[in-house]
Specification:
Elements (H helix, E strand, L loop, with lengths): L1 H33 L1 H10 L5 H21 L1 H24 L19 H14 L5 H10 L4 H26 L3 H13 L1
């Protein structure tokens, strides 16, 4: 079952890429939230409307996208791609207009001028966030390729355990009624 090992390896690499993108979103969000005045200035400089509102909304959306990438990559991946494409469109428009003032993409960490490297960075992040290989293919291919069922079930269990642990931790920490959590997850998933 050499092919199965290769497929499982690809699945692991794809999962690690999703976690890496989630970490990038978390860092970007935290650095923006730590300096709200600087974030408002950056958003105002970028020419965006309502910088006060966006200085809170953008980091919150980034952190939620990062969480979705970890909890449900099939939903978080498209959200991350959409967010990165929106950011990239804004950066490209500024560069084409000849405006080079920094975007504050990573809060106080990114004080340099805009460049095409920012678009290249976002392109790499988009490539990492795109779920190239849907998980359901492995459900079909693993048994047909002779991959041992016990190993496959253990891999599925270990792969999903962190997600369910995070769900349980959120439920016990937030002390929120189950109906409210269910409705919030449905809204986030469908939005």
């Amino acid at each position: 079952p050499r092919g199965c090992r290769h497929q499982v390896g690809l699945l692991a690499v794809t999962g690690l890429l999703g976690v890496a993108v989630a970490v990038v979103f978390a860092v970007a969000s935290i650095t923006k939230l730590r300096d709200p005045a600087g974030t408002r200035r950056s958003l105002s400089t970028m020419g965006l409307p309502a910088p006060r509102v966006l200085a809170i909304a953008i980091p919150v959306v980034e952190i939620l996208t990062g969480l979705l990438l970890v909890i449900d990559p099939r939903t978080g991946g498209p959200c991350a791609v959409a967010l990165l494409v929106a950011f990239s469109t804004l950066i490209a428009g500024r560069l084409l207009a000849g405006q080079r003032q920094g975007c504050g993409c990573f809060g106080t960490w990114s004080t340099g001028d805009l460049s095409w490297r920012d678009l290249a960075r976002n392109a790499v992040l988009v490539a990492a966030a795109v779920p190239f290989i849907p998980f359901y293919i492995f459900r079909v291919l693993s048994p047909t390729a002779g991959y041992p069922l016990k190993r496959y079930m253990m891999a599925v269990f270990l792969g999903r355990l962190p997600r369910y642990y995070v769900f349980a931790l959120m439920g016990s920490t937030l002390n929120t009624p189950n109906l409210a959590i269910s409705l919030a997850l449905m809204v986030i998933t469908c939005a």
